[in-house]
Amino acid sequence: MRAQFVLSEIGVGLRRNLTMTFAVIVSVALSLALFGGSLLMSDQVSTMKGYWYDKVNVSIFLCNKSDAQSDANCAKGAVTEDQKKQIRSDLGKMTTLVQRVTYESQDQAYKHYKEQFGNSPLASSLTPDQMQESFRIKLKDPQKYQVIATAFNGRDGVQSVQDQKGILDNLFQLLNLMNRAALGVMAMMLIVALLLIVNTVRVSAFSRRRETGIMRLVGASGFYIQAPFIMEAAVAGLIGGTLACVFLVVGRYFTIDHGMALSNKLTLINFVGWDAVLTKLPLILATSVLMPALAGFFALRKYLKV
Length: 306
Fold this sequence. Notes:
The chain has helices spanning about 1-15, 20-55, 65-70, 80-95, 105-115, 145-150, 165-205, 210-215, 220-255, 260-265, 275-305, and strands at about 60, 100-105, 135-140, 160-165. By secondary structure, the protein is α+β, with helices and mostly antiparallel strands. A four-stranded antiparallel sheet has the order 2-3-1-4. The two termini are about 20 Å apart. The model has no long low-confidence stretch (mean pLDDT about 80).
């Protein structure tokens, strides 16, 4: 009987405050969808870091005849065979740091350039002797780039030491900035949702103050009186959380797998899988129930004398 009464009161409360209940559902859905999206974005950045950092190389570019005339680092002339042998030998000694060393000749560099930028106007004017020889170094730990830079920058025959990780770091900083912006919007939406929940509970409690007064007179416990209001907020939150889960699943399906099909168009990006999405859904649903319930509980303690 008591359970039936509580359930009937929940239905009555939701119907009485239909507009505010709808606002709560929408705000909870949007805020938790942004929350889930931010978690997925964080996972995506971590996945991309692991994928790309494993592929980046450190490049030691060697001086050629053209550099000897225009670059201060190559003032002593083009790299010699002895200098190349010494660089290769020193790299071979760094067994704890270096995983693999690949030498790229001028002809190979020219071929790779033509493959990538063959349609550019500059490609037709370049010749192989204008290209730079280089050593491409795969590090066991990409974070140890500075050791290579310190060891080889400024050497005779070395034009520059470049770390591809630096380029990726700029991309990841941008992605992290976007993720923080999404979290900021999510926080604002969450505050709006909490305020709406508190307001809805207060209005519902005020509209039924006569009923709650009678229940107090007949000896009903405080929790029994509060339960319908707390459950109303929890039910509205759960509906919003369910919608947020739907948004995430549909968003992942249409942007990555179908519709926009980014997984087919951006093959160089290793997108997060469905397992990452599914693991976020229980957290979103639990938050959607607990957050409104707690907000309703504290709102009632302050505004409803029970």
